[in-house]
Design a protein that fits this description.
- The chain contains no helices and three strands.
- The chain is mainly β.
- Strands 1-2-3 form a three-stranded antiparallel β-sheet, with no helix packed on it.
- About 0% of the residues are buried.
């Protein structure tokens, strides 16, 4: 929705990936909305963040991404 703010939490533990997204005005959900595994995630020392917009996005408004509270644990 244009103008709405969302929050997202991602968890990657080994090859397990989990994610949840919610409206910033609502409390964080207690369950993961998406869970999968990626056996190609084998290196414990790589950390990165990447944002993408799909080619079908035609909204002329600017899209802002911000990140905070990044925690990386061995």
């Amino acid at each position: 929705v244009a103008g709405a703010q969302y929050r997202m939490r991602l968890s990657i533990q080994g090859a397990s990936l989990m994610a949840r997204t919610w409206l910033a005005s609502n409390p964080e959900p207690t369950t993961w909305q998406v869970a999968t595994t990626d056996p190609d995630l084998t290196l414990p020392d790589d950390v990165g963040i990447r944002t993408l917009l799909g080619s079908g996005i035609t909204n002329p408004l600017p899209v802002n991404f911000s990140f905070d509270n990044l925690v990386v644990t061995p």
